[in-house]
From TrEMBL:
Key words of the record: Endoplasmic reticulum, Glycosyltransferase, Membrane, Transferase, Transmembrane, Transmembrane helix
Protein name (database record): Alpha-1,3-glucosyltransferase
One Pfam family, short name: Alg6_Alg8
Organism, scientific name: Coccomyxa subellipsoidea
Membrane-crossing residue ranges in chain numbering: 6-26, 116-140, 146-165, 237-257, 331-349, 394-413, 433-456, 468-490
PANTHER family: DOLICHYL GLYCOSYLTRANSFERASE, DOLICHYL PYROPHOSPHATE MAN9GLCNAC2 ALPHA-1,3-GLUCOSYLTRANSFERASE
Pathway: Protein modification; protein glycosylation
InterPro entries (UniProt xref): Glyco_trans_ALG6/ALG8
Primary localisation category: endoplasmic reticulum
Lineage: Eukaryota, Viridiplantae, Chlorophyta, core chlorophytes, Trebouxiophyceae
Cell compartment(s), UniProt: Endoplasmic reticulum membrane
EC number: 2.4.1.-
Top-level EC class as recorded in UniProt: transferase
Domain of life the protein comes from: Eukaryota
Length: 498
């Protein structure tokens, strides 16, 4: 009622303003590695990349030299991340050159430099992510009610996990996620070439965007195969293939000559040296590792093959559906399903990788309101071991309470719109009516683990038992969500693609 009384424009401005205010508030808290020499953390990595890209020639950005020790936070993201570091580094250099001075700025931490760095993340949201979310709302929910459009914007901009990782822990995931969201909106509106370019930008900002590759490939192939003749089908595929190759060539141009330089960059992007997983992440391999010692039973090569096979096996059904019957909202569901497959089963998954399935789920919030309210809270919970190390417990608790106050109570009741059709179909209705029990059980277990960790010391033989319990509980939630999204993708009556 309040949203309707305010009107769509005012509600949009208010939600964006609140989302920015909360980002600034989270930014007042600590960040990854604050005051922890000798390597500090992700904050220092981002600052160091600015230092390297501003002061060294582009050919040396990914090369181990006397001025660029790759063992100290060497660049390990694709070229657009490096270009972004250069751009923000140039801006910070003009305002506080000591913050990115070559060699002497390692571990540089001042209140003013922290403010500049925090502002750069907010700028990324303003320039890339927020416009992409607004574009998705216009394309996918142009004819939705004022309340539904407001809920979609709220879910996408204020889901706790993304805000805590980018503006607390300190990262720039909003850029790659923004490009991916923009690509989905553009493809859904019929502009396949521009959409392919935007997805290439996302993939070349962070290699995690590979999680969406099966969805975009299947959807675009399905659209191409709907052309009337074999010649036009082949032509459509060839055109998109040329666009992708040309986009990659432009982005990678400084690193293509000699070819060995490109191979050197690619070797920096492959995380095989880091092992099957790091720390505590709510995926299959980590959750089952207390029972099955994967790293002891299999060699690294065997684990890579095992992960590849499991990921491919679980992603194929969603791909097949979109090739057979591509649709606008089906693209978002396929993105979620594909990202879940990669998160749950691929090699070297980080806690932050859950942001990839979360994005399309929140973009579909009006159609899957229960899932869009419940899953972001679980995702934030799954990240707590990481956030706790960063000193973000207070920010975590406050943001989860804010999220719960505005979303979970209203979504815990059976959804009145579930029977009205839309992308939810029967699956959405089932989840909506089952959510009260799921919600109470999830909250009860999560609060129980938090309470136990707060008042009871872990057993000496199991010092990380609470982190492991968080991981296991999160995995069960994510696996259930992945199955639900897969079933929803196949069971719903998709709208016809353009």
């Amino acid at each position: 009622m309040l949203v309707r009384a305010l009107g769509a424009p005012v509600a949009t401005i208010l939600i964006i303003a609140v989302s920015l205010l909360i980002r600034f508030g989270i930014g007042l808290h600590p960040y990854s590695g604050a005051g922890l020499p000798p390597r500090f953390g992700d904050y220092e990595a981002q600052r160091h990349w600015m230092e390297v890209t501003v002061h060294l020639p582009i050919q040396d950005w990914y090369t181990n030299t006397t001025d660029n020790n790759l063992d100290y936070w060497g660049l390990d993201y694709p070229p657009i991340s490096a270009y972004q570091s250069w751009l923000y580094g140039k801006a910070i250099q003009r305002l506080e050159p000591e913050a990115i001075a070559l060699h002497t700025s390692r571990g540089y931490e001042t209140p003013s430099s922290k403010t500049l760095m925090r502002w750069s993340v907010v700028a990324s949201d303003i320039l890339v992510f927020i416009p992409a979310v607004l574009a998705c709302r216009h394309v996918f929910f142009k004819d939705a009610t004022v309340e539904q459009r407001a809920w979609m914007l709220f879910a996408a901009l204020l889901q706790p996990a993304a805000v805590l990782i980018d503006h607390g822990h300190f990262q720039y995931n909003s850029i790659s996620l923004g490009f991916a969201a923009g690509a989905a909106a553009v493809v859904a509106s019929g502009k396949e070439v521009l959409g392919s370019i935007l997805y290439c930008l996302s993939l070349n900002h962070k290699q995690m965007s590979m999680y969406y590759a099966p969805a975009f490939f299947a959807h675009l192939l399905g659209r191409c195969l709907r052309r009337p003749t074999l010649l036009t089908q082949v032509g459509a595929v060839a055109r998109l293939g040329f666009v992708v190759c040309a986009t990659f060539a432009c982005i990678w141009a400084p690193f293509l000559v000699p070819p060995s330089r490109a191979i050197e960059v690619l070797s920096r992007l492959a995380p095989l040296r880091r092992g099957l997983f790091e720390d505590y992440v709510g995926n299959f391999w980590c959750a089952t590792s207390p029972l099955i010692k994967w790293k002891q039973l299999f060699s690294q090569q065997e684990l890579v093959q095992l992960c590849m096979g499991a990921t491919l096996l679980t992603v194929l059904p969603a791909m097949a559906q979109q090739i057979r019957s591509p649709s606008r909202k089906g693209l978002l569901l396929c993105m979620a399903s594909s990202a879940f497959s990669f998160f749950l089963f691929s090699y070297q998954v980080h806690e932050k990788s859950i942001l990839l399935p979360l994005l399309p789920v929140t973009l579909l919030a009006p159609d899957v309101p229960a899932l869009a309210a419940w899953l972001p809270a679980v995702a934030a919970f799954s990240m707590y071991p990481l956030l706790k190390k960063d000193g973000l417990s207070l920010a975590y608790g406050a943001l989860l309470l804010f999220w719960a106050a505005f979303t979970l109570p209203s979504q815990a009741a059976p959804n009145r719109t579930a029977a009205s059709g839309g992308a939810q179909g029967r699956g959405g209705s089932m989840l909506s009516y089952g959510l009260p029990l799921i919600f109470r059980t999830s909250v009860g277990l999560a609060l129980g683990i938090h309470a136990a960790a707060a008042v009871l010391d872990p057993p000496k033989r199991l010092p990380f038992i609470y982190d492991a319990l968080m991981t296991a509980l999160s995995f069960l939630h994510f696996a259930a969500a992945a199955v639900y999204v897969q079933l929803l993708l196949w069971s719903q009556d998709h709208e016809k693609s353009n």
